[in-house]
Amino acid sequence: MADSQYTQAELDRAMEYLDAKLYETLAPKMLGRQIVAQDPDCVGDGIFRARVQKLIEMGDAIVSYNFPREGEARDRVEVRSREVDLPVLSKPYIIERQEMEAFLRQGTNLEAASARSAGRAITRLENQMILQGWKPDGTNYEVKGLYQAAAQTVADPFDFGTYGNADKAVNAAIAKLESNNVEASAYHLICNPTQMAELRISRNPTSGAKEMPEVLESLNNGKENGPGTIFRTDILAPGTAMVVPYDPTMEYFRLLNPLELTTELGQDSKAPKSSPVYGNVYEVLYIDIIDENAICKLTGV
């Protein structure tokens, strides 16, 4: 057993190992990041505040027989900006001393179960933040995610258990978005696993044709293939769903993640010979909803 605390180089070696394991395990589970693009210009481990913007669209255009003249009322796109604090998502864990010794001295793979479990907890919280938001008191949303920020709603009873209703719901949502000047090359449907299961088995009672290809075609503006897809998550309650634009250029929403998922390791200096290694997985993350009209929730599916 080592007779002192681990050196920073030894801790760094373990952190690099755990970071690689975490990314390998968690990347496929980061659902929110597949829907909301990350702003590459917001980078830095010292960034805990950011300026965010909200778009207020112009009113309607007009028709007349004359060209507009000087002095007539002019409209403009209003952009309201404000500063926000960026939340820190974190989860602590412990690596037993014997495991760390085996990794450093004997070349044994470091047991990453604790770090992975902590990482999964952070990923779950991240998806919650992006899709629903964050309510510190358990009641009021201080940060609104996509569903809570949605300015558009389709409340019609489109039960996905009935063939054709999923496609009707998606097209009703897209129509709502387009009527509010939201235009995209494709759209995403996000729904609860219950609705996904219903959609998977939904078939035309006469022809037997599956409904899912029709829904995907609607999400991709009539194309058989495209970036628009269907995501399932229990972060949305059963009977609810939402439709959002495919938005790689961050026109409608963006993810601020100046400090990405990071592993930190340290020891208790009061017991250097026997102290376990204390780990922490954390990140800084905020979803910036630029245009709330770009999100349509479905409440009767």
Write out key terms for the chains shown.
301 residues, alpha+beta, Major capsid protein gp5 fold, hypothetical protein PF0899 fold, 2 domains, five-stranded mixed β-sheet, elongated
Topology:
Layout: H1 8-26, H2 31-35, E1 49-56, E2 78-85, E3 88-95, H3 97-106, H4 113-131, E4 133-134, E5 143-144, H5 146-149, E6 152-154, H6 165-179, E7 187-191, H7 193-201, H8 212-219, E8 230-232, E9 241-245, E10 253-266, E11 277-289, E12 296-298
Report on the structure:
The chain is of the alpha+beta class. The chain folds into two domains: 8-63 and 74-144 and 252-293, Major capsid protein gp5 fold (2-Layer Sandwich), CATH 3.30.2400.30; 151-250 and 294-298, hypothetical protein PF0899 fold (2-Layer Sandwich). It has eight helices and twelve strands. It has helices at 8-26, 31-35, 97-106, 113-131, 146-149, 165-179, 193-201, 212-219, and strands spanning 49-56, 78-85, 88-95, 133-134, 143-144, 152-154, 187-191, 230-232, 241-245, 253-266, 277-289, 296-298. The strands form four sheets. A five-stranded mixed sheet has the order 6-12-9-7-8. Strand 4 (133-134) and strand 5 form a beta hairpin. Helix 1 (8-26) packs across helix 4 (113-131) and helix 6 (165-179) packs parallel to helix 8. It is elongated and about 70 Å long. The termini are far apart. Mean pLDDT is 86; it is low at 57-62 and 73-77.
